[in-house]
Amino acid sequence: MPRRSDATGYTGVRERPSGTFYSEIRSGPERINLGTYETAHEAARAYDAAAWRLGRPHAQMNFQDVWTREQAEDLAPPPRLITDEDKRRHKMLWRRLYHAVEDERLMAEWKKGFPEDAQAMRAFYVQRKAVRKASRVARRKDKAERRAFVLAQEAGPQTIGDDDDRWLDLFSSTPVSDTTVSAGSDSSD
Q: Per DSSP, what are the bridge partners of residue 178?
């Protein structure tokens, strides 16, 4: 016998004004939408399947005749798809899920059959990641240098103040020609 708790007679099931039944379950502060169903019984079965997945105790289920998660999922119908757009989107999502699962299975099979190739592929992607990171760092550095140059150009020419040490370099007592040694000169003169 199912557990009865509200106007529909099932936990987590509400009737909509259109006559369909909406099922939801709470997980902490969140409400998880389980879909819209033709009957309250179908919506309650969907609630039970979700409750099993969330690890709820058997006493909180609508139906006490279900003893495993797989059994609850088998008894729960898929949600009602109202419009053609809903049906198309649902079909597309199931296709994507199927392809993703199949890709994972085939990739695992390939890695098991060709471990050297899998290792080479892993090394390739590690190297590619390092090259991309170095390129990104170089681009950021170049961008920072260009920005500094533009900011310096916008600031205009700079003058040297009276207390700047660069004046000492301009007017030092030793001429520049005395401090440099040319390649062809001999210092023994």
A: none
Taking each continuous run of H as one helix and of E as one strand, the counts in the chain are 6, 3
Q: CA-to-CA distance for 34 and 115, rounded, in angstroms?
A: 42
For residue 55, the SS3 value is coil
Half-sphere exposure of 2 (CA within 13 A, CB side): 18
Q: Kindly state the percentage of the chain with pLDDT values over 70.
A: 72
Q: 21, 15 in Cβ contact below 8 A?
A: yes
User: Where do the DSSP E strands lie in 29-161?
Assistant: 30-37
**pTM for the whole thing?**
0.39
> What phi, psi does 109 have (nearest 5°)?
-65, -45
pLDDT of residue 2: 46
- End-to-end, the C-alpha distance of the chain in Å comes to 118
| Of 161, 162, 142, 138, the residue nearest 150 (C-alpha) | 142
Q: In what order do the strands lie in the sheet with 30-37?
A: 13-15, 21-27, 30-37
Which residues neighbour 53 within 8 Å (Cβ) at sequence distance 6 or greater? 69, 73
Contact status, residue 125 vs residue 131, Cβ threshold 8 Å: no
Tokens of 187: 């210092």
With cut-offs at 50, 70 and 90, classify the pLDDT of residue 6. Answer: low
Q: Per-residue confidence at 137, pLDDT binned at 50, 70, 90?
A: very high
